[in-house]
Design brief:
282 residues, mainly alpha, Glycerol uptake facilitator protein
Length: 282
């Protein structure tokens, strides 16, 4: 049966009869992959059109707010009893920063590994590729500035209690001490999960809170690596003087960055493009 024949069959067997009923049925129906792709593509185009100053300030804010993932996890670790289940509970704190950033619509680098890539896949060009890479560079640099600012408060002021600071130090040493290869491969699932969150939210906006909580909790519980949240931990140790620039850059930052990009763009974005490509071409 051809597509036209299927559409005729749907029209003949439609249960509702008025346009208002048809509109209600369309609103209640799950969004198709093509519709979700278009929603995210338009969001990506809007991001690419934003002036650099707006990207910078939004990115700095995201870098600061994501620090609450580290702070939340460290706080729970400080006060939970030493029990087998405590690890799973403390990782709920990791979701706090992501809730702040994503629901506040701040610029987080790992979200852009899918949102700004989908427009490029529809209309690939060197000009658009340049805009994507420029936005990535601006947002990542701004996220780093915010991460270092937040880490400075944690490491060099009395704003955080000593017990929580000790937990932040332990978390930071673990995150940055796993080695370049392990940081890279553990960054891939994190990139996939952040891209999946971006993909799911247009379909289930009312459940966005729980989508973010569950899948960012999984990043922490699975011991995966995230470049921006992890940069807070990296910056904390650098400001304390226990992590050198070369070890930070080549042992943590660049491998995790590559892993997140592979997960978000090379895997997830390409998979969703393959899912809708034939419909877009048609």
């Amino acid at each position: 049966m051809t597509k036209e024949e299927l559409e005729d069959e749907v029209d003949r067997t439609e249960v509702v009869t008025t346009e208002a009923e048809r509109s209600s049925a369309r609103d209640a129906a799950p969004k198709s992959s093509l519709v979700i792709y278009e929603v995210i593509r338009k969001d990506g185009l809007e991001e690419l059109a934003r002036p650099p100053a707006a990207l910078i300030w939004s990115g700095i804010a995201a870098g600061i707010l994501i620090s609450f993932s580290v702070l939340g996890e460290a706080t729970l670790r400080s006060y939970l009893p030493d029990a087998p289940t405590s690890y799973l509970i403390e990782n709920l704190g990791y979701s706090l920063g992501f809730l702040l950033v994503i629901l506040s619509r701040m610029q987080l680098f790992t979200e852009n590994t899918i949102t700004t890539v989908l427009p490029f896949m529809v209309s690939p060009s060197l000009k658009l590729l340049g805009k994507v890479l420029s936005l990535w560079g601006i947002v990542l640099a701004a996220n780093l500035v915010g991460a270092f600012a937040a880490a400075a408060v944690m490491a060099q002021t009395a704003a955080i209690s000593p017990d929580v600071v000790a937990a932040i130090r332990a978390l930071s040493e673990h995150a940055t001490g796993m080695g370049a290869w392990q940081g890279f491969v553990r960054g891939i699932p994190a990139g996939v999960l952040i891209a999946a969150i971006v993909w799911m939210i247009p379909q289930a906006r009312a459940s966005a809170f729980w989508i973010i909580v569950v899948f960012t909790w999984l990043i922490a519980a699975g011991d995966f690596t995230h470049i921006v949240a992890g940069s807070v931990e990296m910056a904390f140790l650098m400001l304390e003087g226990s992590l050198g620039l070369a070890d930070a850059a080549f042992g943590f930052f660049l491998p995790v960055l590559a892993g997140n990009v592979v997960g978000g763009t090379a895997i997830f974005a390409l998979l969703v493009w393959g899912q809708v490509r034939s419909e877009i071409v048609e």
